[in-house]
Automatic annotation (TrEMBL):
Record GO cellular component, one term: cytoplasm
PANTHER family linked to this entry: MTH938 DOMAIN-CONTAINING PROTEIN
Domain of life: Eukaryota
Any single Pfam family the record assigns to this protein: DUF498
Single GO biological process annotation from the record: positive regulation of fat cell differentiation
Subcellular location: Cytoplasm
Function: May play a role in preadipocyte differentiation and adipogenesis.
Keywords, comma-separated and alphabetical: Cytoplasm
Chief site of localization: cytoplasm
Name this polypeptide is given: Mth938 domain-containing protein
Family: Belongs to the AAMDC family.
InterPro entries found in the cross-reference section: AAMDC, MTH938-like_sf, NDUFAF3/AAMDC
Length: 138
């Protein structure tokens, strides 16, 4: 005898999106796991990545990374944000951006881009909800 229930079954599934690994970095080129695109500058967060187009916010090397540049990544629910200042660290990070991140309760690391990528990948591998904005040239 087989027994079938006609009651609906509720299944709860929680999807945890991890931060994608930065697969490669060289001058002017970054590749991110899960994307076929080659980025010059990029934003990454748990579950995604995209071009970081400085024209969207009027960003320049100085004064540098603005709160508007990191806001999108912060809204993705990151615990830590890594900022890659470029291969020669030409990109500045003004106090207003650091203050914005502190007010949001976000840990922030500001590093030369090669070091930033290594740190970001290490945090991502540990399961930290990490995001980043990376400049891959000067």
């Amino acid at each position: 005898m087989e027994c079938y229930s006609t009651r609906p079954v509720t299944v709860s599934v929680k999807f945890l999106m991890s931060s994608p690994e930065i697969a490669s970095l060289s001058w002017g080129q970054m590749k991110v796991q899960g994307s076929t695109k080659i980025y010059k500058d990029c934003k990454v967060w748990p579950g995604g990545s995209r071009d970081w187009d400085w024209r969207e916010t009027g960003t320049e090397h100085s004064p540098g990374v603005q709160p508007a540049d990191v806001e999108e990544v912060v809204k993705k629910g990151v615990q830590t944000l890594v900022i890659g200042r470029g291969m020669s660290e030409a990109l500045k990070v003004p106090p207003s951006t650091l203050e914005y991140l502190e007010k949001q309760g976000i840990d922030v690391l500001v590093l030369q881009t090669e070091k930033a990528v290594k740190e970001y990948n290490a945090l991502a591998a540990q399961g930290v909800k990490v995001g980043g904005v990376f400049h891959s040239t000067c």
